[in-house]
Amino acid sequence: MATESPRRPSRCTGGVVVRPQAATEQSYMESVVTFLQDVVPQAYSGTPPEEKEKIVWVRFENADLNDTSRNMEFHEIHSTGNEPPLLLMIGYIVFWPLQISGEAQELFSVRHGPVRAARILPAPQISAQKCDNFAEKRPLLGVCKSIGSSGTSPPYCCVDLYSLRTGEMVKSIQFKTPIYDLHCNKRILVVVLQEKIAAFDSCTFTKKFFVTSCYPCPGPNMNPIALGSRWLAYAENKLIRCHQSRGGACGDNIQSYTATVISAAKTIKTGLTMVGKVVTQLTGTLPSGASEEEILAHSNLRRSPLVPGIVTIIDTETVAEGQVLVSEDSDSDGIVAHFPAHEKPICCMAFNPSGMLLVTTDTLGHDFHVFQILTHPWSSSQSAVHHLYTLHRGETEAKVQDISFSHDCRWVVVSTLRGTSHVFPINPYGGQPCVRTHMSPRVVNRMSRFQKSAGLEEIEQELTSKQGGRCSPVPGLSSSPSGSPLHGKLNSQDTYNNFTNNNPGNPRLLPLPSLTVVLPLAQIKQPMTLGTITKRTGKSKPAPQISPSKSVGGEFCVAAVFGASRSWFANNSGLKREKDQSKQFVVESLYIVSCYGSLVEHVLEPRPLSTAPKISDDTPLEMLTCPRASWALVRTPQWNELQPPFNANHPLLLAADAVQYYQYLLAGLVPPGSPGPITRHESYDSLASDHSGQEDEEWLSQVASPHMCQQELGAVLYHPALTGSMGSS
């Protein structure tokens, strides 16, 4: 490795291929020595150091190239050892897919000037009634840059869609106000404005719905949203009681003393409200016969109507077209959940891969909340939002810019603008992380066999039901949402509980699960950045500005993602990768890229707490982290651009064709280039051509990918083609 260059030209696409270099804690100090040896002599000779382009943002992208649910190349991922690549997008714009072999290959590189946001649009979901108008142009790239295609629009006020197959611009969407971010899935393209959200259909790019009631955030995300495979979560500017879901934010495991204080505060508030009614009526502002709702509405008009920390989740498939308005007069069609998540404005949020967990953070950055979303088919007021975890980062303020889940949803990494990535252990069903839940390569059940056989599960449920709240041991007092200042009294709550008291197994009913406070097991900070040292004096410069919303000095962008280890080549260049080599790690590796173009793989090793007197299933955890490999992905001004049109064997084009073909088969349509028409049942028969001799579960796992969200998996399981072929099983 020492004699080979880490960069070499690509043989198929013409881009640059970067090989991994071994990275250790010591290598950071060695990089400083190398920097002094290279730069200090140049300071005396007058030779300037190699100039590198400034990176304004970084992101790990989900596209057709690494779509494990719709790209049939990855459907047998566990049996063939084939892993999807990590697709890194650097904001000026360069695409770097990191293959399982450890090589990062440049697939796309342009110089568009300042680019605020960019996304690779995945192939849309089609059906017999809905076709893709841009099928021959895909894959598409959506870009928001300072100068739009028209040249007359204000800066960052348009989204241009380019075809990576032909190189032409196929669509331009204009706005009157600046755009701050882009999000997309196989259903919609979401354009994020300062206090608005506009969603466009992914097949036609016509406007589908828009939201104008977003709560603004000072940054780094001016209008934070989370887009899953089907649901869209955004920060609402008010709390509507009739749409409020059961549950929501709970205090940080507040005990009885604080719960008592809250109860006393509620009593004082009630007394003050009564005094306010009398004073208002005496002054003649409202008539004496005015109802309580009219008085509250009048008081809200005099005060600021904006309420921070409220989250609304909508179903992008069932929501009505036009404006999405959550109000007293609107119905709940398309509204999945509506609940308070924080007391401060929301700064960032993200769904887990299944779409059932939502992590939210506020502008302070002290605590991050993990919610479990349990929907109800009638209305959002019957849905339940379980506050499973409060992830406590610390007492100092920090702005969160990135949140990422592991594929099994047992680990969450939250990155701040200070460049620190905090790694937290969680369980998809809640509860305290321990040796039993996180020292196994697979997700374990909530209760062990011993706990079930001993009847501890029934005892725990009985004790929980007798308590007055999930965070307070005092009967009648609670720091849960129904007893906190964030929440109001639910409509007909007592009647509803009495009616369903004989069904304690419904997860949407009380008692809610207990809240767990978790501290980070690891805090990975970025190493010393050589780019901030001047050439002559060695004094540090102010940190560069990252984006228009990140203008405070000392802040720089990072992004993190979990993935299979790719450091085997850097440490053992002469060995071949074994298929099961990646299974020896309990946790996937953590990849962190900084705004200086350095991508580092960190190996995470959880273990029982070393200070524990005895190791058991309930022993707490600690974690060791170690950097194993690094990739230098920063571009120099001398690099050639790599622009479309691309050849048919380009990886981005091959992935788009594979996903589109799979979409045609699922929809029962004729794929392009097929010899003749096929029916819907025949399309599934083509997927099940090798079904003979296989178990039903094994064949179903190839059609219904394990990475599908819960709603999509149900559609596949109950499809007539599948039920007809599998019979009663």
Proportion of residues in helical segments: 10-25%
- Anisotropy-based shape: globular
Give the N-to-C terminal Cα separation: 54 Å
- The tally of strands reads 35
Structural class category: alpha+beta
Average pLDDT works out at 75
- β content, as a range? 25-35%
Largest sheet: 6 strands, mixed
Number of helices: 14
Which residues sit in consecutive blocks of at least 5 with pLDDT less than 50? 1-5, 34-39, 252-275, 277-303, 467-504, 529-553, 677-707, 713-729
Radius of gyration: 27 Å
Structure in words:
- There is one protein chain.
- With 729 residues, the protein is α+β, with helices and mostly antiparallel strands.
- 20% of the residues lie in helices and 25% in strands.
- It is built from 14 helices and 35 strands.
- The strands form eight sheets. Strands 19, 23, 24, 25, 26 and 30 form a six-stranded mixed sheet that branches. The chain has a five-stranded antiparallel sheet with strand order 3-35-34-33-32, with no helix packed on it. A five-stranded mixed sheet has the order 13-14-15-16-21, with no helix packed on it.
- β15 (197-201) and β16 (207-211) form a beta hairpin.
- α10 (651-667) crosses α11.
- The longest helix is centred in the middle third of the chain and has 28 residues, at 256-283.
- The two termini are 54 Å apart.
- Keywords: Acetylation, Angiogenesis, Cytoplasm, Cytoskeleton, Isopeptide bond, Nucleus, Phosphoprotein, Transcription, Transcription regulation, Ubl conjugation.
- InterPro entries: BCAS3-like, BCAS3_WD40, WD40/YVTN_repeat-like_dom_sf, WD40_repeat_dom_sf, WD40_rpt.
